[in-house]
Specification:
The protein is mainly α. Helices cover about 50% and strands about 0% of the residues. Pfam families: LRV (PF01816).
């Protein structure tokens, strides 16, 4: 099929690149058979292999260093993932926000490292600092000064944000950030009432 795809076959291209095939049968195969897929050139097989829970340590080391990040993410969701593996993966690639549970919520994730993410150059990783519910005001202000609107909105939703920082975020040029600031229960009730009055509601 790959040869047909290379030759320009539309059917082969559709089968290889558009069909969301998942070899779920591999999950139930004997361990020895599953391990033969460690070197499989097709990522989807290594992804399924990485969802197992009974692999030997040598296999986990291979999967934790797989060339494809989706394989590394799948492997990282096992119960005994080492903290350094989780931290390395998060620092390099951030989270996939639509996948639950988040890797930062893994029992082995070193949550004391979250505050260090404030200085990460990648805004997707910097966002994860906000997973610390006790992030200090100084760090919240630094993130609140970022150019990325989703970071400012994250600060506006944070439970430890100060009322005066919320006041500043109420003037955010992006409506979502301003709305998140207005909805944060940290904002004084009188200010909330004033916002509703100003809106004519």
């Amino acid at each position: 099929m790959e040869a047909e795809d290379a030759a320009g076959s539309d059917d082969a291209a559709l089968a290889l690149h558009w069909t969301p095939y998942k070899p779920s049968w591999l999950r139930d195969a004997p361990l020895a058979e599953r391990l033969t897929y460690l070197d499989c050139p097709h990522t989807v097989f290594r992804q399924i292999l990485a969802t197992g829970r009974d692999l030997p340590e040598a296999a986990w080391q291979r999967l934790d260093n797989d060339l494809d990040v989706s394989v590394r993410r799948a492997a990282a969701h096992r119960p005994d993932t080492p903290p350094e593996v989780l931290l390395r993966l998060i620092r390099a690639h951030g989270e996939r926000s639509h996948v639950r549970p988040l890797l930062v919520d893994h029992p082995n994730f070193p949550r004391q490292e979250l505050r260090g993410f404030v200085d990460e150059p990648d805004p997707r990783v910097r966002l994860l600092a906000l997973e610390d519910p006790e992030l200090p005001d100084a760090e919240l202000r630094r993130i609140g000064d970022c150019t990325e609107s989703f970071l400012r909105a994250g600060v506006a939703r944070h439970p430890n944000v100060s009322a005066d920082l919320l006041e500043r975020l109420l003037a955010d040029p992006e409506p979502t950030g301003a709305e998140d600031a207005a909805a944060n229960p940290v904002l004084p009730r009188a200010r909330m009432d004033g916002i509703i009055t100003e809106a004519g509601l």
